[in-house]
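Hi Y.,

Following your request, here is the sequence exactly as I used it, all 281 residues.
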Amino acid sequence: MPELPEVETIARGVDARVRGDRIVEAWFSGYREPFKTGAAKQAKGLEDKVFLAVHRTGKHIVCELGVGRSSAAGSGEEPTAQWIVHLGMTGRLLVTRPEAPVEAHTHARLRLKSGREVRFVDPRRFGRLEYRELHRAKAFAGAGLEPLTVGEEEFAALFRGRTLAIKAALLNQSLLTGVGNIYADESLYRAGIRPRRAAGRLTRAELRRLRRSLVEVLEHAIRLGGSSVSDYVDAEGVRGFFQLEHNVYQRAGEACRRCGTAIRRIVVGGRSTHYCPVCQH
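Below is the corresponding structure, written out as tokens. Let me know if you'd prefer a different format.
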């Protein structure tokens, strides 16, 4: 499943390509699974709306929509609706030319005034598309705190008194929104903390180190376009590069880049977990 860096990369790419563009026509497939809002309602709501901005909230891509009163790419206009995209396991949100071949498992096509198309492709249909009218519903918000901006005290308070493993705590979306398996493993490695340690037993120094490591790993992964370990590509269909720098994730049995010890794989909270038994304590 795409995690925070991948979703951030896609959101930035889509925003750069569609901000200020108007949706002329919206088409949706006949499959029900990807649609948290009915296909007909989405199509009716999206048509003639303008993309004011596209951003990430947790693991969701949120498209802010309006009527496009301003000529400056919708600047200064308050959104009246949102189109919310969750990529699931294999979802992709692409901006392409209308003549580009339509891939199998394409579930949404938004034709834009510029001539481009926004397409949602999802072979396994675990992704979700939702349309919200903001005079009827609240704007979308993540359940947990934002990992890139959470403060030191807030971060420490998340884990105080918790007996669950720190790896499981990092994956708890009600605590931190957007962190997934890859970046939890990589952040714990960089911080030198074993994934099975009880979250509530980490020292303040260890929590400071973990927060710093988490931010550094996420920001570096965003700069490299995310990790392409499965189906992930960005808004133009380009793979990321951070997988080339993984220190532990999916490297079980390979030598630790720091000490040479074989990386181990265990299961924590039902999730495959990778760590170095020497560098992490």
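Strands lie at 23-28, 50-57, 60-66, 81-86, 92-96, 106-112, 117-121, 128-133, 264-268, 271-275.

Thanks again,
Q.
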